[in-house]
Each structure stands twice: as structure tokens, then as C-alpha cells.
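USER:
Make up one protein:

ASSISTANT:
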Amino acid sequence: MSATADHAETSPAVRLGFQPEQVVQEIGYDEDVDQELREAIEQVIGSDLVDEDYDDVADAVVLWFRDEDGDLTDVLVDAITYIEEGGSILLLTPKTGRDGYVEPSDISEAATTAGLSASKSVSVGKDWSGSRLVTPKAAKSKK
């Protein structure tokens, strides 16, 4: 096994379901985001993340969200409009005790209200937790 293949298996981007040649839109970027995770995603997909001004649909959305960023349900509903049917949203929120922490119950309620279901929750760095949210169609299909 090559070192590259071994790294790919342990990459948080791979564990989160990102795949080569996907178009991944990033929403909520700020100076506090986890740059290593961003770089890992870009390495897996083979291109840069596209920003909030991207005017086509994406395969997935990386959404950085902090408690002070507004209404999570509204942000998720907006993010859904950016993704292909069957796409996913990686919701990244600060870990417990960090500025901007979002209660898991708030994430669950907002996801349900937005018509999404959480399929995976994972630690993605020292300051961020990730929840992989999928549309009901994506949750039912085995993509």
C-alpha cells in the first residue's frame, strides 16, 4: 500500500464522504475555520472549494456555523438550494466550551425542520465538530 493511499484512508475528508471531482461549496468561512480540514477536502476533491457566490449547484456544502451566525434552520434551508439532489451538507460547529458552540439538540431540531437527517457526527479538529446532513432522498439511496 502506498503512503498516499494510506493517508487517504485516514483523511477526515475521506471519512466524511468527500470524493474526487466533487464540487464542494463552502459557506460561513471566517478566520476561525480549520484550515487543515479545508486543505484535506481540497486534496480529496482535486480542486478548490467554491465560495458562497458560486452560481451553480454543488455536490456538497461545507457549512461553518457558530451560535451567533443567525438562525440555523434558515441557513440550512438556504444551503439545500445550493446542492444537487442527494447531496450532503457537512455542518461544522465549534466544540463544547468554544466560542460559538451550538447545542446538539439545536442542530437536530434545525436539521429536521429543514428536511434533513443527520447521518454521521464526527470530531474534525481540535475546535470543530461535524455533522453530515443529508436530504431524505440521499438518506434512502445507497450512493
In short: Residues 1-8, 138-143 have pLDDT under 50 and may be disordered.
